[in-house]
Design a protein that fits this description.
Elements: E1 2-7, H1 11-22, E2 27-31, H2 37-41, H3 44-60, H4 77-95, H5 97-104, E3 107-110, E4 115-119, E5 122-125, E6 131-139, E7 157-158, H6 159-162, E8 171-175, H7 179-190, E9 194-198, H8 210-222, E10 226-228, E11 233-240, E12 243-250, E13 253-259, E14 261-264, E15 284-285, E16 288-289, E17 302-304, H9 315-331, E18 344-346, E19 352-355, E20 367-373, H10 378-383, E21 389-395, E22 401-407, H11 411-423, H12 428-432, H13 443-456
Parallel strand pairs: 1-2, 1-6, 2-3, 6-17, 7-14, 8-9, 8-14, 9-10
Antiparallel strand pairs: 4-5, 5-6, 11-12, 12-13, 15-16, 18-19, 19-22, 20-21, 21-22
Helix pairs in contact: 1-9, 3-4, 3-7
């Protein structure tokens, strides 16, 4: 009998298994397919390859401005998808997950098929019928792309189907304008497809700060992407002469689109179907496993982490949760989960990055906000990427940095420095005092911090030696 059995070999599961073994437990990890989880095999990694290709196409459009001669590239979609699979393989080889797990003493069941509870202490594996007994379990089975039940829904694709497409569609309708939908809209538009992006929400990226939603929507429209928000839902999908026809509801009645492909990006339910959770006494609600702040399920010997909980569905968060779940499972502790500072973003064009609450969420507090356009950055002018802005939110009474929301070149990288400052408990004047390298996009954070310092400390109150609010020569902005 194993002391801990981990179900799922993604970031949460591998972290949980390694941590449980580090604490001295006898551990088995069961993975139905390939180790690495959705992000490595089917999500972040291959999608980022598409985003890289899209950036190369975009940058080629600047050749003439920089005295370069050359034809604009044409996308060979089949070769690009082949590249995504090679990169996935290279990342798997780099991680060497199975070797690391086995070296640590974890018994690995990879390619085991579905794992199903026979009773509260026994799992049976689909592939070979093997049964595993465990004292405690950590469920990290992840999630999958949602596929709503609509007439003709089988004609639609999800992001998982992109990797097996035979050719680039001349036009595509993407239903769902959260992170996945927006990233796919961005890359398909860069490759030359006519893109329609639809969502039932009143704005795209509805979970992000309103400035991010507005900034990305504006950039998309300038790039020729049709953004349609506030739809009443999708009615049906029918076959058409050159693809499919999507029928959806608007306030004025039913509308339709004839496109080469429809891609659904409308949710991420957990992989619960084969687990037979009832046999283990584990409760699920609205497609996800229910856990408390110690990541314990309704069964005291079963814990869960990562996408299966439906909480914070990000790789960095899954890794954090996997470690906590393993510690509580092995040590019998009650270390609680707190996602205090979680930077995240999307590889759209332009990128967006966020950390902390939105401005709306901080309105009940006494806060101040600085918004610095990328056009104020010398680096933005140099690189010809002046689109976007950085919003920094700071508490007036304490000077603590509460969050940042950025749209612009390298936004996902830039927001990391704000997250680091927040985690370190820095005050805004300390962030303003950092001598950030010039010329960089990251410097936008220091510029925003200095503007807030100048607001919080009026000029007559500044001492002669206090240089925190002094603007650098490059910070000049035209009125």
């Amino acid at each position: 009998m194993y002391e801990v059995i981990v179900v799922g070999g993604g970031p949460a599961g591998t972290t949980a298994a390694l941590r449980a073994r580090e604490l001295g437990a006898r551990v088995a990890l069961v993975e139905k397919g390939n180790l690495g989880g959705t992000c490595t095999n089917d999500g972040c990694v291959p999608t980022r390859v598409l985003a890289k290709a899209a950036r190369l196409v975009r940058d080629a459009e600047q050749f003439a401005e920089y005295g370069l001669e050359g034809e604009l590239p044409r996308v060979d979609f089949a070769r690009l998808l082949n590249r995504t699979q090679r990169v996935v393989y290279e990342v798997q080889e780099k991680k060497q997950l199975r070797a690391r797990l086995e070296e640590a003493g974890v018994r690995v069941y990879e390619g085991a098929g579905e794992a199903r509870f026979l009773d509260d202490r026994t799992l049976v594996l689909e592939e070979d019928g093997a049964t595993l007994r465990g004292e405690r379990f950590v469920l990290c089975a992840g999630g999958h792309a949602g596929r709503p039940s609509i007439p003709g829904g089988h004609r639609a694709l999800t992001h998982s189907d992109v990797w097996t497409m035979k050719r680039l569609p001349p036009s595509v309708a993407i239903v769902g304008a959260a992170a996945t939908g927006c990233q796919l809209a961005s890359v398909f538009a860069a490759f030359g497809s006519r893109v329609h992006l639809l969502d039932v929400a009143p704005r795209i990226l509805p979970a992000e700060d309103e400035a991010v939603s507005k900034g990305i929507a504006g950039a998309f429209e300038r790039r020729g992407i049709e953004v349609v928000t506030g739809i009443g839902g999708v009615d049906r999908i029918e076959g058409a002469d050159r693809g499919v026809r999507l029928f959806y509801r608007r306030e004025e009645g039913e509308s339709s689109l004839d496109v080469g492909a429809v891609i659904l990006a409308v949710g991420w339910p957990a992989n619960l179907e084969g687990l037979n959770l009832e046999a283990a006494g584990v409760e699920a609600h609205r497609g996800h496993v229910v856990v408390d702040d110690a990541l314990c399920t309704s069964a005291p010997h079963v814990f869960a982490a990562g996408d299966i909980t439906g909480r914070m569905m990000l790789v960095q968060s899954a890794t954090h949760e996997g470690g906590i779940a393993a510690e509580n499972a092995v040590l019998g502790g009650s270390r609680t989960l707190k996602h205090a500072v979680v930077p995240h973003g999307g590889f759209t064009d332009p990128e967006y990055g966020s950390v902390g609450p939105s401005e709306v969420e901080t309105r009940k507090d006494d806060c101040t906000v600085a918004v610095v356009p990328y056009a104020d950055l010398d680096r933005g002018v140099i690189d010809g990427h002046t689109e976007g802005a950085c919003k920094l939110i700071v508490s007036r009474p304490t000077g603590r940095i509460l969050g940042a929301h950025i749209v612009g070149e390298q936004a996902v990288e830039v927001v990391q420095i704000v997250a680091t400052a927040m985690r370190a408990g820095m005050r805004v004047e300390q962030l303003a005092d950092l001598e950030l390298a010039y010329p960089t996009f990251t410097a936008v954070v220091g510029l925003a911090a200095r503007r807030i310092v100048r607001e919080l400390v009026p000029a007559p109150s500044r001492r002669g030696g206090d240089e925190l609010a002094r603007a650098a020569e490059w910070e000049y902005r035209r009125a």
